[in-house]
């Protein structure tokens, strides 16, 4: 009866195989290009670009799908898309993983637990596939980072240093431009005290920020207004020329870095803005080109030097205008995005990438400007990319090391979703496709869809696995016990089951539309309808 059952079960498969063989023989053989076109169309329905797949993945798909396509079988585009993801990542699929059928997944998961709890190494195929897939997901994520991902501190440190290096170079240019603003006798041009102080106070009042200006800056403004300061009980003159601009900016920047209060920072920024807009002191007695009045001393000097002295004064004015334009552009760059502003204000490296790139509160527009700035240096750009991959992996492994971490599809995919619009700012389309494929494959390998009944407690698998070991030990003490009892059970229930689950081709075929089970019970078949129909009366 066993032999008859086996033979009977083989008949449908043999008939189907013969039919496929005849179809392949009768049909003209497709070229590789024709195969590629068919596969490309199948994948396009799932949003997968055939041309972007790695060559190894393309080769595997051609090999696996060629027989079915040659035989004219209808393939399931969704299942083929999942298989393409597995081949892209380099993981091993099972039939349940490509079909996501709840019953098939239940069988695979439970059988894997039974095998893992058994002491027979021949039965460990499925659990080892799960372990290898977990390791491959980690390895493929690392691959996008170019190896082991960089930690956030290292990436933040490089980013902050790169921004500050550019700022330092720009400040040196600014100082040089202001230094060129001199009068005809080589002295630094004087700035208008009243214009600066009253502009600062007026703007502070307009924004109601005057109360937040630090007392030390208030005192400094008063010293500039009066031109006097008291030190050690003595009154000293306070110069206010172009030479003082850089020192004043340094003082304001230090005060801004020392506080986290946004109102205080804004008040200091208003004073800084007023300083950048301060005009020269061109009152009576000074000549900077044009028709202003001059002192007798300057007049004599200009008469003696002729047009050369007048030209020098005009150049001084032009130098001052260039310096102010450059200062405004530098200030605009510093304030173009919060990340650059924070870096100039000595942001802490360990929080820089997390706060100004990864955080969901960091707007995409701001991250885009920061990415453009950091992209000037390929080393900094690659380090930042590596750190982002490290963040994704950290969410997947919950901070565990590669050797012992269990890849969590939920943690990884949540992190990917939060960075979805920012990834194109740092990664190429192929790199993004690989990262997304990792997330999808992780889902396919771990999902337990509605209708599945996986024994997550492992109690059933433990009992079955230990029971199989006990039966093996007991049967080994009986004459022919192992060959007669254990081997057939193991071969049928476990070994054949593992091989069947690793045979994914049946799972790639398009499902046959069948009416629901309840409908088949409720609606009589053709045969039953004929038998149960009322007799016809002539």
Describe the protein.
This protein is mostly helical and 538 residues long. Helix content is 67%, strand content 1%. It is built from 25 helices and 2 strands. Helix 8 packs antiparallel against helix 18 and helix 13 crosses helix 14. The N terminus and C terminus are likely disordered.
Features:
two-stranded antiparallel sheet; mainly alpha; 538 residues; disordered C terminus; disordered N terminus; 67% helix; single chain; elongated
Quick structural summary:
The chain is an all-alpha fold and 538 residues long.
Ordered list of secondary-structure elements with their pairings:
Layout: H1 2-26, H2 32-44, H3 55-70, H4 77-89, H5 95-99, H6 102-116, H7 125-144, H8 152-179, H9 193-206, H10 215-226, E1 228-231, E2 234-237, H11 245-257, H12 262-276, H13 296-305, H14 307-334, H15 338-344, H16 349-358, H17 364-374, H18 378-397, H19 409-418, H20 429-446, H21 459-475, H22 481-502, H23 505-508, H24 517-522, H25 526-532
Helix pairs in contact: 2-3, 3-4, 4-20, 6-7, 6-21, 6-22, 7-18, 7-20, 8-14, 8-16, 8-18, 9-10, 9-12, 11-12, 13-14, 15-16, 18-19, 19-20, 21-22
